[in-house]
Design a protein that fits this description.
Helix content is 71%, strand content 0%. Helix 17 runs antiparallel to helix 18 and helix 18 packs antiparallel against helix 19.
Length: 488
């Protein structure tokens, strides 16, 4: 669970330093332009556009009257919100390396090639990822462990890696959203004052529809991707694996330890650290590596020489030191989000939104849109839940909507969509862990599109949008919902 954080409300902003809506849109549009031009036009890594954005928004904050200490407080708040994500990224990079050296991921690839076929692989990967993510409550852990193995299995079956990653991510986020162990699920319920299981029940129908459609989509893609496997390809891959690693069920001990602790409800970070120790121990006892060599693998990664270039490429990892590129992107993105929040830019935009809403369906749909926009601007899925979740609670009460409508909206749109933006913490992690760039897997990450789409259809049709009594201060004679923000 992220550290507690209360975003700046519109009413809390100093009127002398509070930007108008038009002024607040200037830095937002600048950030969009910098990221778009830097990545799509100039082909730069996200770092320079993020630095441009931080400098521009910081200068805008100084123009509003904020001093450096206040801007730095915003950066610190953004980093505190994302601290758990940063530490998890560090740990998972080392964990993947130790699981490769232990034979855990090679073993999963070996047996997966025995069981799965090209036609059934994609829907099966999505369903298995969903079950695992539901059981352990972590989409990141699911993708960083099983997801890496599935990429290898898919390569052996001739399935394009972007399709595989899209299927794994779809299942991982669908299962994560329904898990009572998930940090984002608990966060969405907590910031909206919603009962946890009430929140999960409210999400159930939309999640089931979106994930069911995604699985059908992957079944169709599987038929398209199921061409003839070159003769001897699977045998060559399995031979390369058995010639490099001791393929045995004992090598699955790290997987059992990690998922066992997660299922029992232990927090993600200590669970992953336990998985690292289990991976190192298995590397020593099963694969015959020395103590120092096993820990050097944790630090520097793996570079197997199996005789198969495909296997070598799939199982090459960067270890702990390989996380530097990813961590620097995440730190820059979180810093940008923190300044946008501290200077009141996001609060002003949120206030304008609540003042413009005229119906319960529009409120729910607009909440989903705001979660997606905040994901893009702050690069942190926690912010996409916390900011609208805290800001819009009173507005939902004014429209007679229970808080589980708010919690469902922020998570249905906020949690899965972050991995679509290349500079987002989730997307940076998923791309680096699987080796597939964000813009390559994004078209196949079906659940990220279907989850908010189903939410919007429900909002437009009123399906599952249960309106109760309006707020106590509403005019009893009114038949239309009151206009939020009218007290200002």
């Amino acid at each position: 669970m992220p550290r507690s954080f209360t975003p700046t409300a519109y009413e809390d902003l100093d009127p002398d330093r509070r930007p108008s809506l038009a002024a607040a849109l200037v830095p937002v549009l600048a950030v969009v332009a910098f990221l778009g031009i830097g990545s799509a036009v100039l082909g730069l890594d996200p770092h320079p556009p993020l630095l441009w954005s931080i400098a521009f928004v910081g200068a805008f904050g100084l123009w509003l009257g904020y001093d450096w200490d206040e801007l730095f407080d915003g950066i610190a708040n953004g980093l505190v919100m994302g601290l758990q994500a940063i530490l998890i990224i560090f740990t998972i990079y080392g964990l993947i390396a130790t699981w490769v050296s232990a034979g855990t991921i090679p073993g999963l690839m070996y047996y997966g090639l025995e069981i799965l076929s090209p036609t059934t692989f994609l829907p099966a990967a999505a369903v298995v990822a969903a079950v695992v993510a539901f059981a352990i409550g972590s989409s990141w852990t699911t993708v960083g462990t099983l997801g890496v193995a599935f990429v290898g299995i898919g390569a052996g079956l001739g399935v394009p890696a972007p399709m595989t990653v899209g299927a794994v991510l779809s299942g991982a986020y669908a299962g994560d959203k329904q898990s009572p162990l998930s940090d984002t699920t608990n966060l969405a319920a907590g910031v909206t004052n919603t009962d946890l299981y009430g929140h999960i029940r409210r999400m159930r129908t939309g999640t089931a529809i979106a994930f069911g459609l995604a699985v059908l989509g992957f079944a169709a893609l599987g038929l398209r991707a199921s061409g003839a496997i070159p003769a001897g390809r699977i045998a060559d891959i399995q031979g390369a694996l058995t010639g490099t690693y001791a393929i045995t069920v004992v090598a699955f001990v790290p997987l059992v330890v990690t998922f066992g602790l997660a299922i029992r409800g232990y927090a993600a970070l200590p669970t992953l650290v336990a998985g690292v120790f289990a991976g190192v121990l298995t590397t020593i006892l099963v694969q015959g590596a020395g103590f120092v060599a096993a820990w050097e693998t944790f630090m520097s990664g793996t570079a197997p020489e199996s005789g198969s270039q495909l296997v070598n490429d799939l199982l090459a990892t960067g270890g702990l030191t390989g996380s530097a590129w990813t961590i620097t992107v995440v730190v820059a993105a979180l810093s940008l989000g923190g300044i946008l929040e501290r200077t009141g830019i996001l609060a002003v935009i949120a206030h304008a939104f609540t003042s413009a809403v005229r119906s319960p369906g529009a409120l729910v749909a607009g909440t989903g849109v705001s979660a997606i926009v905040i994901n893009a601007l702050t690069a942190q899925q926690y912010m996409s839940i916390v900011l609208p979740g805290v800001t819009l609670r009173n507005t939902y009460d004014e429209f007679g909507l229970d808080t589980d409508q708010l919690s469902r909206a922020v998570e249905a749109a906020g949690t899965p969509t972050g991995a679509l933006f290349p500079w987002h913490a989730g997307a940076v992690f998923m791309a680096s862990a699987t080796g597939v760039p964000t813009l390559e897997y994004a078209p196949y990450y079906l659940f990220a599109f279907l989850s908010p789409l189903v939410l919007f259809v429900m909002a437009a049709t009123g399906y599952t949008i249960d309106v109760g009594p309006l707020a106590a201060d509403a005019d009893p004679g009114e038949t239309a919902a009151p206009t939020p923000g009218s007290d200002d």
